[in-house]
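Appendix C reproduces, verbatim, an entry submitted by the partner laboratory led by Prof. M.T., so that reviewers can inspect both the input and the predicted structure.
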Amino acid sequence: IVENCDNFSIRFITIDIKNVDKLYIDRGAANLSPESYYRLLIGDLLSDEYKRAVYLDSDMVLECDIAQLFEENVDGVILGACRDMTGICSNYGPKGAERLEYQRSVLGINNTDDYFISGTLLINLEVMRKEVSSDTLMEMAFAQKWRQHDQDIMNYICRDGKARIIDASWNVMADYGTNKYLPDSLFDEWIESERKPKIIHYGGSWKPWRMDTYRDGVFWKCAAETPFWQDI
């Protein structure tokens, strides 16, 4: 994939976690992959020479130069991330009271409208390493059944202003029919991100390699440029 590209290299890191099968992955019809928790290890997986890192879920397509995200300001905070619009709109839906109570009492989030999604993360590794170790994060992961898994843990350690909200265009997902519950300001932010997304995130069960779905043409255009085209 990268042999004819400048300034690219790929390394594979083998991660071995004891009792990984005990991580909470229940998510209804399709369970979460235990590997989703591995993003908690980034601070230790990368050596101290790395001051920042961009984490992206694998079910994403970039529509711009990733360097633009890398240049976002995360000085003094653990990370930058986008609001979890899908989750936030559920807070305002018919069964939102319980979700809000959980986020406030368990996660310690005062402004639940800033609950972020962990699919796109710009991590300030220097701050993260000072605030919390990977061992501590994994201990937290094993400690209880987090409703939103590793995403809840990231929100928990970033409570009290240790995360910076970045533009919603860096994590644009399909509307599952609940975005209508968003308050006006967040609804407008979501609509604006839809006009020119920087990252399209095929989150949830709507995957373009499984079904005709949201912005699937963008995915197939990228897939056609990979050695895996025929397999897909």
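The two ends are 16 Å apart (CA to CA). Additional entries are available on request from the coordinating office.
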